[in-house]
């Protein structure tokens, strides 16, 4: 088995949202990311995917818990190691329109990280920018233009070039394709896959489109209301989902195939996702769960490896309730 | 088709902007029969919403202008109606669900007032009777405690509930046609599944015809009877849902289908993207608008606009590959 690159342990990120209210955006999650793999993170809007990503890369300070990168606690890193960390871990953001500075030339956007880290200077800097533009399927003529002159797909490529510029090992891609048209999404996904092969990159790929996540990820984690509900290898999660939430999520996804859709049995959840400010006691999913039991309201289910490499947090799979 | 409900013929809509004239819709024709569901799919900016707004006569003029074409509802030309008659069509005969629910709900009015506003102007009905109808509809769209909910304001509803509210509003006057512009795009998949089910249920119960605009091919596969594939202001292919999914002819349709992964698909199979970006609608190409992105493009495609070819009774496409003189590459 490959080496652990990132270890997330009992990570919590709570926000104070006025009047002493606490919003538990990420509430005690644990998982590992192995070198060279793509770990997908899925779940409905507001379940804490972006917050998880941002806390791992230290854009947010963790409320409690740990994130280890190459074995070092990222929230304790200081001094020279900090710079190294900042280079090795990069993030690609959700919105290709908002995440690029409109007043900067593409060349300077891409080179910003290199400049900070003093990586490539003078002639080298420009050569490197041209090379990166080519890597992401743009060309050197684009270097002197401004972001507004590009389409959504092209901007997302600029964001990828910027992340690659400093030779990172680990990239957190937060919904890198959600804002793009389907015909453009495939271009960006293929590019990310190619780059991974070429540079041995490791990805945390955040998205709510489970079809796309399954296509790109080796393993997938399913989040709900700040908690991790299930984590397994992609095929395994799709073929044999264990958590009732995962099952419902999978069966909610329409397939682009009318004949399959005609006969498909679907589990349709009722109700809405509860507020993370006042989440249900016990299991966060119990208010919408078709299989909820009494114990689900009383106790938070444990995070258990119920089969090799297949983790789930659900009372249905806890030894005492079987 | 037994008795056409809506018929659109060669519709063209442009907007004058600082940069020039945007040719948003460039000769669109299709028909909708009673009780059927017709989808319009295509990428951002291809003219889906403008087509829908034209049916409702909601294109802002200026800057917009219907350049040519006609829209008939039950054989009656909508362009010939006065604004007052048109207001009757809107809401009463055609209900519309807009792309962004929050901008089309009035934040200062209670949900009850918004729901009953239309029916009170169109029909002789007391507020009490109207409330009763509203409560029934809220119930139909799956909103619990409808009596209580009538007194609340839109911001007190969740995203999914607001979308249900929009559907209820569009259905208040029992329209024959419902136009739904991306009704589930802003929603999570589990809520989307609820809303799609709701559409099917309502159609079964009321027999309303639906035009659904979406870019999600999965949603289309679940709900549509027929599909219009739009590209750069034109319909490039039209057919039954099965013809479009299993016998797609236009390279754009084929490209759309191979560029999305399937949840039940094989991960090792690479996606086949459509390269490039859509053309500029300020100066659309003279020939086929898809030429620059088409892997089968020929010389003729660039120089001349293709004719519409009829592949079967209900399956049309607009592509030079259909010409008898061309040997099809697929
Ligand atoms: N800076 C912040 N301050 C307060 N609350 C926040 C902050 N950032 C996120 N939240 C809240 O934390 C929860 C999780 O948000 P997050 O952005 O992580 O969700 P997400 O899973 O990425 O959703 P989406 O799919 O919509 O991007 C939400 O309820 C959100 O409102
Ligand atoms: N009021 C307006 N003024 C100027 N241009 C407009 C206006 N409304 C629409 N357009 C232009 O018309 C074209 C078609 O727009 P439309 O809204 O129909 O696209 P769409 O297919 O609905 O896209 P999306 O999937 O993004 O909603 C676009 O180029 C758009 O910029
Ligand atoms: Mg997010
Ligand atoms: Mg639109």
Describe the protein in words.
The complex is a heterodimer of chains A (322) and B (330). Chain A has helices at 49-56, 80-88, 106-116, 123-135, 152-164, 182-199, 210-216, 234-239, 244-252, 258-263, 294-298, and strands at residues 4-16, 22-34, 38-42, 64-69, 72-73, 89-92, 170-174, 202-206, 219-224, 227-233, 304-307, 310-312. With 322 residues, chain A is of the alpha/beta class. Chain A has an eight-stranded mixed sheet, sandwiched between helices. A four-stranded antiparallel sheet of chain A has the order 2-1-4-5. In chain B, helix 4 (111-122) packs across helix 5 and helix 5 packs across helix 7 (159-171). Chain B is globular, with a radius of gyration of 21 Å. By secondary structure, chain B is α/β, with parallel strands linked by helices. Helices cover 34% and strands 24% of the residues of chain B. Chain B contains twelve helices and twelve strands. At the A-B interface, helix 6, helix 7, helix 8, helix 9 and helix 10 of A face helix 7, helix 8, helix 9, helix 10 and helix 11 of B. The complex binds adenosine-5'-triphosphate (2 copies) and magnesium ion (2 copies). One adenosine-5'-triphosphate binds at residues 15, 17, 22, 24, 44-50, 60, 63-64, 99, 215, 281 of chain B.
């Amino acid at each position: 088995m490959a080496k652990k690159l990132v270890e997330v342990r009992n990570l919590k990120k709570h926000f104070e949202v006025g009047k002493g209210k606490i919003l538990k955006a990420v509430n005690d999650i644990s998982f590992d990311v192995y070198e060279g793999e793509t770990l997908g993170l899925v779940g409905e809007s507001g379940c804490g995917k972006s917050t998880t990503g941002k806390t791992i890369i230290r854009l947010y300070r963790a409320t409690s818990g740990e994130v280890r990168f190459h074995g070092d606690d990222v929230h304790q890193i200081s001094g020279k190691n900090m710079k190294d960390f900042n280079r090795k871990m990069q993030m690609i953001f959700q919105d290709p329109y908002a995440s690029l500075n409109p007043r900067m030339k593409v060349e300077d956007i891409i080179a910003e990280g290199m400049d900070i880290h003093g990586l490539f200077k003078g002639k080298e800097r420009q050569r490197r920018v041209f090379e990166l533009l080519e890597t992401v399927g743009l060309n050197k003529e684009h270097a002197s233009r401004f972001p507004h002159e590009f389409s959504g797909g092209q901007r997302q490529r600029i964001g990828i070039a910027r992340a690659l510029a400093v030779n990172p090992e680990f990239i957190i891609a937060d919904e890198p394709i959600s804002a793009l048209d389907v015909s453009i999404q495939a271009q960006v996904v293929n590019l990310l896959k190619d780059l991974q092969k070429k540079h041995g990159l490791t990805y945390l790929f955040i998205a709510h489109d489970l079809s796309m996540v399954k296509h790109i990820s080796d393993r997938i984690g399913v989040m709900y209301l700040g908690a991790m509900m299930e984590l397994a290898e992609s095929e395994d999660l799709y073929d044999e989902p264990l958590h009732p939430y995962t099952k419902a999520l999978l069966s909610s996804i329409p397939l682009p195939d009318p004949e399959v859709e005609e006969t498909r049995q679907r589990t349709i959840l009722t109700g809405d996702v509860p507020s993370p400010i006042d989440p249900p006691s016990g299991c966060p999913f119990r208010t919408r769960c078709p299989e909820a039991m009494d114990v689900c309201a009383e106790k938070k289910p444990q995070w258990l490896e119920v089969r090799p490499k297949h983790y789930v947090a659900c009372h249905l799979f806890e030894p005492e309730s079987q | 088709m037994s008795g056409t409900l809506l018929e659109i013929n060669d519709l063209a809509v442009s907007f004058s902007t600082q940069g020039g004239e945007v040719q948003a819709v460039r000769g669109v024709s299709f028909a909708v029969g009673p009780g059927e569901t017709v989808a319009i799919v295509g990428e951002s900016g291809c003219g889906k919403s403008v087509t829908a707004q034209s049916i409702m006569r909601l294109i802002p003029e200026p800057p917009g202008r219907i350049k040519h074409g006609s829209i008939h509802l039950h054989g009656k030309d909508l362009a010939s109606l006065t604004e007052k008659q048109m207001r009757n069509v809107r809401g009463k005969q055609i209900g519309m669900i807009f792309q962004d629910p929050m901008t089309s709900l009035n934040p200062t009015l209670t949900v009850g007032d918004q729901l009953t506003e239309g029916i009170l102007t169109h029909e002789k009905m007391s507020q009490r009777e109207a409330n009763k109808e509203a409560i029934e509809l809220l119930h139909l769209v799956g909103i619990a405690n409808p009596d209580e909910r009538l007194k609340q304001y839109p911001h007190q509803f969740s995203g999914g509930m607001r979308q249900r509210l929009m559907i209820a509003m569009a259905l208040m006057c029992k329209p024959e046609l419902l136009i739904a512009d991306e009704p589930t795009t802003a929603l999570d998949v589990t809520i989307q599944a609820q809303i799609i089910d709701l559409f099917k249920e309502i159609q079964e119960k009321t027999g309303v015809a639906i035009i659904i605009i979406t870019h999600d091919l999965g949603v289309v596969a679940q709900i549509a009877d027929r599909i219009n594939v739009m590209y750069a202001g034109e319909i490039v292919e039209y057919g039954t849902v099965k013809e479009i999914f299993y016998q797609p002819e236009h390279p754009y349709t084929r490209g759309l289908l191979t560029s999305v992964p399937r949840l039940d698909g094989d991960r090792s199979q690479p996606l086949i993207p459509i390269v490039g970006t859509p053309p500029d609608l300020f100066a659309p190409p003279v020939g086929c608008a898809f030429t620059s992105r088409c892997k089968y493009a020929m010389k003729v495609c660039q120089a001349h606009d293709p004719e519409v070819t009829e592949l079967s009774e209900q399956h049309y496409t607009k592509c030079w590959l259909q010409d008898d003189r061309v040997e099809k590459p697929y």
